[in-house]
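DM between two lab members

TW: hey, do you still have the Cucumopine synthase C-terminal helical bundle domain-containing protein entry open?
JB: yeah, one sec
JB: this one, 314 aa:
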Amino acid sequence: MNESKRVEITWPGLGITVAAELDQRNKALAQCLWDALPYRSLQGHALVAGYHLYHVAPVHSLLHTPAEYRVDRRTVPDGTLFCSRLQHLGIKYGELTEPMTATPIGQVVPEDLDALIEAGREVWRSVYTTKQPIIAEVRRAGEPSGHQLPRLPIGDPELNTLITEVHAETERIWLSPPQELLNLHAGRIPSGAGSYETVLTTLLFVNGETRPLGYSCYGGLVRAAMDGMPLPWLRQMTHMLAHTPAEFLGYCGLDTLWNFTQRLLDGISRLNNHNDFISAMNHMALYTNCLGGWNLHLFPWEAGEHLRRVGGTT
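TW: and the structure you got?
JB:
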């Protein structure tokens, strides 16, 4: 890896672009990002940790590539870039309160820090209040923008058919909200989920199940398979970890996810190829993480505006 790799992160809807230098602290992770450029993604904002931007990066290898250097996110300079096993590209732009160990890969150049802060404030307004999506574009400096979701090979014919559909659905919803989530957030829930006809309660539980399904279940299964866990154990773990939350999410309105999950569980029961398992779980992770990103964006966070931390500032 060359010593200097400069990327540009731009938010065309805001008219803001910042440049960042990738560095050697986690060169393997930085190379994963570099090799995947360019791409576009829905820009998100931390909802608990503080002044932090993140989005789902369409980079399968982030799920399992080991880190060489870790830091407490609170202690590093504003403008630090991170790649994580949650499949995120994150950028710190102010104070963070969460004591999370993170893996830095670069730094926004000093002259662009003011622009980064402006972008952060606008993204927070988008996520918390307006619900107007903001798209981030990440590219190599001086090169054109673009976008393509990677497709991993699968030899098993039936499983390949399923993952072809998962990949196509992920592409379809990558930059546009899925209709199932729009329906759910509008209170159109055919199953009747939501006690006493409430909607917020259902939205809360959908968010609480979707994120760990992508982050912990499918991301964890990729790492377990990469570490050599035998296929019989992987099959058993997939059934144990994926079935119940996916079934619940289907009940709440995410029928496509539940359909994919049922076919996946059936498909891996006859699978004898470790690489096919890894490819399938990679695609399920990316799809589920995409759903999670949209759910976080659509969630009516402003409903809690009257609830403020004691001693907090506005």
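TW: got it. The domain at 6-140 is CATH 2.40.100.20 (Cyclophilin). The chain has two domains: 6-140, 157-301.
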